[in-house]
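Handover notes (outgoing to incoming on-call)

Open items:
1. histidine kinase: sequence verified, structure written out, both below. Nothing else pending on this one.
2. Nothing else urgent.
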Amino acid sequence: MSVGKSGQETGASMVSPRRRPPSLVVGIGASAGGLAAFKTFFDNMPADTGMAFVLVQHLDPDHKSLLVELLRPHSAMPVVEAQDHDPLAPNQVYVIPPNATLSLEGDVLRVATPSPAREYRRPIDTFFASLAESQEDCAVGIILSGVGSDGSLGIKAIKEHGGFTLAQAEFDDTAMTGMPSSAAATGLVDRVASVESLPTKLLEHQAYLTKVEEQKGADGAREDVRGSLSAITAVLRRRLKHDFSGYKQNTLIRRIQRRMQVLQIESVTAYAEHLRKEPSEGDALFRELLIGVTQFFRDEDAFDSLKANFLPSLFTGRDADDPIRVWVAGCATGEEAYSIAIMLQELLGSHQHEAAVTIFATDIDPQAVAFARAARFRRIDGLSQERLQRWFVKDGDDYVPTHVIREMCVFSEHNLVRDPPFSRIDLITCRNVLIYMENDFQHRVMQTFHYALRPGGYLFIGPSESISRETGLFSIVDKKHRILQRRDGARASLPHFVPQAGAISSPQLPANRIEDQIDKSARRVMAKHSPAYFVVDRNHNIVRFSGGETGRYLEPSEGNASLDLFANLARSLRTQVRRAVETAFSSGRAVEEENLRLEGKPPVDLVVEPIIEVGHPPSLVVVAFRTTSQTRDLPQEAEISPANRRELEAIQQEFRALQIQHRATSEELESQIENMKSVTEEFQSVNEELQSSNEELETAKEEMQSVNEELQTINSELHGKNELLLQANNDLQNLLDNTQIATIFLDDDLTVRNFTPAAREVFSLRDGDRGRPVTEITSLLSYDKLCEDVRTVQRTLGVVESQLDLEDESATYIMRIRPYRTVANVISGVVITFSNITEQKQQHDHLQVLMGELQHRTNNVFAVILAIARQTVRNSASLETFEQQFGTRLLALAQANALLVDQEWKGVSLEKLIEAQLAPFIGGDSTRLELVGPPVTMAGATIQTIGLALHELATNASKYGSLSVPGGKVVVSWSFDEGGTSPESFRLEWREQDGPPVKPSDRKGFGHFVTKQMVTRSLNAKVDVDLAPEGLRWSMQMPANEARSG
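histidine kinase structure tokens:
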């Protein structure tokens, strides 16, 4: 079974070659309460399934739908409103627009405007039907919450084409169960589950298809099933007594694969074993094979052609004793049979025909036959409002055909291939049945139809069915609508039928429409009694006269002509006959009365005998009369004495008086009966009016229910939108309350619309100031051009920016005035923001001071470097010497600066400075350096000079002094000296020990410049140098307040 598309030419031609088609196309239908179900469904659906989803909901045609916006937060996939000619893309959700019908052509969505009559809109059925036809086994139909039955026919279509169907469970508290339960009632829903579980069921179905395709491919899977067809059909033949070996193999394979998908069985061998072991699976497969989509007047143009051009000929030259016989083969649930009955009844009424009509409707499916016989339809599709009101009666939630339509149809189970046909048929309809049969079976059935039809009879077949092999048996009289006529000269042998026990049930025939049964019963009663009889129904209407002497028992009442027995019967007989008829109907037994008197005529005997239908109460009775002379002789009149004669005359006179009184009473009773009948007719008329009003109310109720569904949907959408708006408003309010930017919103007329709490820092605003002109509110800024700048922004739509201070100069703000733009890009006032930059301004000022200080320090460093360079050049004999000396001195200067930078130019520990400058000279031997003095942090201004001085002293010691020999060392000490009346001073001393003897030198190099002149000038210090025999001693003394940091 392929997960990809199944070779649809239309889709292939419309989908761009670059666009990858979805693996499955999922149609989801819902009505009232559908929004919550949609949200929950997509909350549980991942983003990368490769499927396309199309949502069809009952929407108010006059209002914009918010469904797209409401579903986007719940879907990991993009949600868009469907547009005409949109190609389907995987991992995308399409939503039906309001006032539209949606359909699918290949992989392309088509959006159309629906018919104006709201009651005929079934958008879910419409889309599902096109989905089934275009996607076949890649179609998935899901019915979610909603009232009504929309989607049930679409579920049938999807199943017929091999698709997958699901419905929301009735136990799901979020569901309105009308639509889901109606879909489930069809018996064609593969999975019923809560809405949270439906995505999992769908993904399991997709995974099964993918796994089968990966293992064997679509062709391999079909061939596996093809190899097991004979075994599977044998099981069905043995268990169900039906032979599907003549069923088209590709259709049979597809239906078997559908059952395997539903059961998640990957191997056809395993499925065949499951079929043998589980009797219920045989029934399930049987139901799968018999899926058929039907409705009233399906393909209405074809039915109109049949009625206008061919049915009238059935009445031509036909007398009342020759009934019209119609056979609806493959009637499914009866819609087609009742459609034919309606057309024939309309012709009977319009042409005043009196021919009786019998419609034999048959199907192989006993459940479908039972449904058709029950004749209770929850959905009436394909019927005009006029026909619906005329030929159907609303009974609760169901529509029931009227008595006259129902009595025309006889339903029975029948197998076209196996069971003998009906005979003397005028019209056979067999639509969309032959397409499922192989050629041999088709030919066999067509021979059967030819045999069953009368000469010149018609055959009405489906639009996809062909008779290319049967032109010898039938001629085409309407090619477009597939109406054929029996060729009278052709001869077709009737196929041999071997009926199996219990294979076909005896139809239960309506007595008043089956003339043969009436005649048979009437003849039986006549043989026993008299040729003068009437056949009467339960409404006392005469349905047949025996002819002959019936006229002697009739005495029609004045007024409109009627076939009512008691309006035509002799008045003297009415009372006794009425009582006998009622007794026969109620008891089901014959009733006899003797010696009923007729004025001026011999007495008669009455026999009322019901016509028995097995299993049903009698609907007809035979009312027969026989004269007493036919049955017995009267006794001879005896000799009467005068006394007795006088007594007899008195008795006769009294009897005549009683007769007159009885006649008067009978006439009065008949009058009362007539009055009652009149009242009954009036009540019946009122009842019909009430019924009509009730139907109108039902229609109005349905319209109101539809509007209510839409309003509920809109209410759900608005509720969800309000939640989003409330959340957005909360977010905006929190943003306004917590932002540190003062913001004021002004209308076009400069009135305050809103403001943030921080705006109170720049204007004297209160909550009640909303709606007041900003010019009436006191500003705390040194700024009087607000109105002028606002007008400039309104005129130019630009931005005005200024730096402003509060009047007390305690804070500084950046003010920006911008146009206020709505979502629709409409200018509606201005937005003024005040950003407090007081801290930034203070930091800027401080930065300026630091920059000045940095510039000063940099200049000092450059001056030192310049001095070092000049002195080094003077004392360097070569460039290499200059480079080496200059580099080491710059390194010393850099080390001092590095220490300053580490301490953020606030001062450096003297001990660290000494260690950093001498570290290159003592080689890590801490015994060669001794530091003596208290902890002290030297001022930044002294660091560079002292560092250079220490570097030069160490360089000289490493060349000529104590650091030039292994045992030598240096002692550096420092102290603060109290000067009495003099200011406190800082003293730093360098003393070398255990070095070679120091010899005076007349040469004054860079070291002398730094240690003597530079220290003296830069640090305002006094320097002493002592060339003692034990080693060099150097010291400096400077003011303590200039030496210490801080």
